[in-house]
């Protein structure tokens, strides 16, 4: 059964369940404090918002998204599918991002892609469904699953802040690689998404700065 993190109480319940399951996380929580749940809009708009912000500063991403949302109101996959490529370019989107959004819009219109159903799928399967789409990498997939769908078991194995937090919190000699992160997180299934929130809070408490994904909300 897929667990969803829809509210702060959902996250807190999940964190307490993690600590009972893995006592190593108790001192992590004591230092980190209870993490705050971060959510973003679901559906096509949520994924498009993340795509628009890839590899951009927060200010630049916000400006482009503001122009896009105002120009295509209401903003949905049909609006993007119908929009001319040159118009999207004038709004600030790169050719690669336009290609990604156009492809997503076509797949949704043709009912070959249902983003909402990913919330009910196994986290690893949902992750691989997303990264199989052109222009959707692991970072974008993890942000969408965690923050837009509230998937309780989504696991950002490539996130450097989570990796560094685990290294420090579990007393590892080196920061685990993305490949090593999968077996490390096995004890936390099906609550790896809650564990990620906890490790981001721990990283912030220890390093005094936000991780990339944690700042995405």
| Cα-based radius of gyration, to the nearest Å | 18 Å
CATH level 4 superfamily of the largest domain: Hypothetical protein, domain 2
Whole-number average pLDDT? Answer: 93
The largest β sheet comes out as: none
Give the tally of structural domains: 2
Query: What is the number of beta strands?
Result: 0
Q: How far apart, in Å, are the first and last alpha carbons?
A: 26 Å
State the name of the first-level CATH class of the largest domain: Mainly Alpha
What percent of the residues sit in helical stretches (DSSP H or I)?
55-70%
What is the overall number of helices?
12
Q: Detail the poorly predicted runs.
A: none
CATH architecture of the largest domain: Orthogonal Bundle
Task: Give, in order, the helices and strands.
Answer: HHHHHHHHHHHH
Inertia-based shape: elongated
Portion in beta strands: under 5%
Protein name: DNA-3-methyladenine glycosylase II
Organism: Bradyrhizobium zhanjiangense
EC number: 3.2.2.21
Keywords: DNA damage, DNA repair
